[in-house]
Amino acid sequence: MKSTTFIFTLLIVASLFVYSGCGNGNNGGALSTSSAAEKVYVPPGEYDEYYEFFSGGFSGQVTVHGLPSGRLLKTIPVFSVDGEKGYGFNEETKPMLMTTFGFIPWDDSHHPKLSQTNGVHDGNFLFINGNNTPRIARIDLTTFETTEIIQIPNSAGCHASPYPTENTEYLVAGTRFSVPIPQADVPIDSYKENFKGTFTFISGGQEPGSMDIAFQILAPGYDYDLAHSGKGASHGWSFFTSYNVEQENTLKEKNSSQYDKDYIAAVNWKKAEEYIAQGKFQEWPSEYRHNFYSDKTHSATSTLKKGVKVLIPSECPGLVYYLPTPKSPHGVDVSPTGEFIVGSGKLSADLTVHSFAKMLAAIEAENFDEVIDGIPVLNFDAVAAGTVSSGGLGPLHTEFDGRGHGYTSFFISSEVVKWSLDTYEVIDRIPAYYSIGHLSIPGGGSMKPWENGKYLIAMNKITKDRYLPTGPEMAHSAQLYDISGDKMELLLDFPTMGEPHYAQGILASTIIDRQVKFFPLEENEHEHKTLTEADTKVVRKGNEVHIYGTMIRSHFAPDNIEGIKVGDKVFWHITNLEQDWDVPHGLAVMGNQNAELLIMPGQTETLVWEPKEEGVYPFYCTDFCSALHQEMQGYIRVSAKNANTKMKWSLDEEVFGE
Amino acid sequence: MKSKVSIFLAVVIVASMTACGGGSGEKEKGKFAPPPKAKPLTYEEAVADWKNQKGLGPIKNVSLEEEIDQEMAKKGEEIYVLKCTACHAPDKEKLGPAPTGIYDRRTPEWIMNMILNPEEMAMNDPIGRGLLMKYNTVMANQGLTEEDARAVLEYFRTL
Question: A117 forms bridges with which residues in the sheet?
């Protein structure tokens, strides 16, 4: 009775709201909590407008959120092992994490960048760089899985990466840490003499399985921090910021901040192609690994590659130029037309906007202040188009809408500043909570921001009091703004994984219809696939035992296995026979020392298990699959090393064995 | 403060759903109530009436040629072996019933709908629902195309 009264009252109140509120939404004032809520509310069962791919930062992964809701849709393991998916634990994906340093279960992921065709995000792939052990990964946007990782040799601190060119001809990688190149045992204080940087260009971005080091360019030993490839007017060039032009090797926070200006390196990669074609490169015997995962074999291979082509700027005139840029620039961002190159001096209040047309004119006129290791330094006044006097502090990154505006993050003053690409005047500013690093406008780094720029996401380095406190460590915060009107409006605040270093978004409709729902059994080319229960078997090869098994709602075949002995290495090659969307099955065996398998429909995966003691061990499906999921289990018997237990496997009345 | 806001939000949301959303739940006035639906058949009644039971799904009519299309049947057998034998044996009960003799108890339309649309069949078809009770599980949808299912149907004729 009481609840009926309550509901009745609620409805009356509700209807009052409705009659007063319907159809006259905009009252022109500041955004109220309720109107912000309406803008981010995605009703149950409905979809977000955008996929937004966040770097997982020091988690090494990528997270996928929906916008405008901010809901977490998926975590994609990339550079770090992931027990949830068995990534890096099962035999099929271990090769993905191979490097010349051996198997590495972790990295620090930084900049997710979508592949481009004609300067527009085409929705084919997402690339992301690993900073610590230099690598670039490809994520296939039909499966949301990491399918390729290439290691970058002659590099350290792969930060200025991957920033694809207009048609993804190349991905780029600059060295944030200069090191002896090639590596050598030298005194650290011989930095100025022995340390170098490189700009690496990676080909094969649009052809899965073919990523390779096209060429590297040796550069003076500065810290190359961030990059952007040109587009439109500046197609054919890539830009890299640098700091530590001082070439200091200790207490860099002081010693690397002495000079008034550092440089943005402008690399003419079409010129580089000419030099490569002319054979004007050095062949270095550098080693690196190329790892590729096939959705046909459901397995990865890791290949050791040798040899890279290296271009030396002093031997290749016109290859690299330096654009002086104040105060240790961090971000270098290229406007949608490709004409403006925005440098954010992170210790400055101002942004420097270089003009690509002026740069070409300065090169033509040889308006050089000096030449460093064969790299001409262009005159600052000859290339700078203007300065944005922001009134903020610590500019880091700029993205663009499709209406002639730049939006720049300011770390120290913790705000987003909107400015005009015509007049360089500040138009609007809004706080971020707290200490914003990157910002992201879906499509805002491409030639065509989606919907001319509707949303902006701030990715913040400090969270403090934004959410319920969770001990000393808290999730980093992100904020969503509506930038479609004259004034930026804060809509939503949501937590992210790791340090969400950067993010890129794509209109969901671009890729929603390309999603793979399951892998057809007929196309399964796994070396150890088992496509029917009639083919299941257990095979001993010395002390290796291979179980060829299957799973379907809700049983394993076989589900009783005997004849395993202590000291055996057991390979569970299990195929999921389901052919329906969202029916993965898992496998875990008591005491298995890696992680579960999580096998997608039609896929085969392998768990290695090395039982240490005699006994009977249960195994089971870990992913709730049907009303009889709890029944999806089996037993495996382990006998003593010298026991004569016969090999036997069975399902129900079907018994096989020696 | 926060809880007040959330109550406020809840009210707004409810309000917009009940009124702005366009009255999908409203009864239309001045019209006769629809005639009461026929009482659904029980499993036993539907099984007894199996010749009229076509099931629920995309298949409305299937005509079988007098001669079995051996080529189609062979393809159907391959599909059946790959996609179905984890739960069905041809001639004896496994996790689900055997297809041998199925034409003595089900129509071709019903069989194809069961293959193509097992979730809805288990929920809303009287025979499908009865089989769910008997076998304790919803048959897996193995992603067969209509052409695949038709071939499996032809294979069943050879059993």
Answer: A120
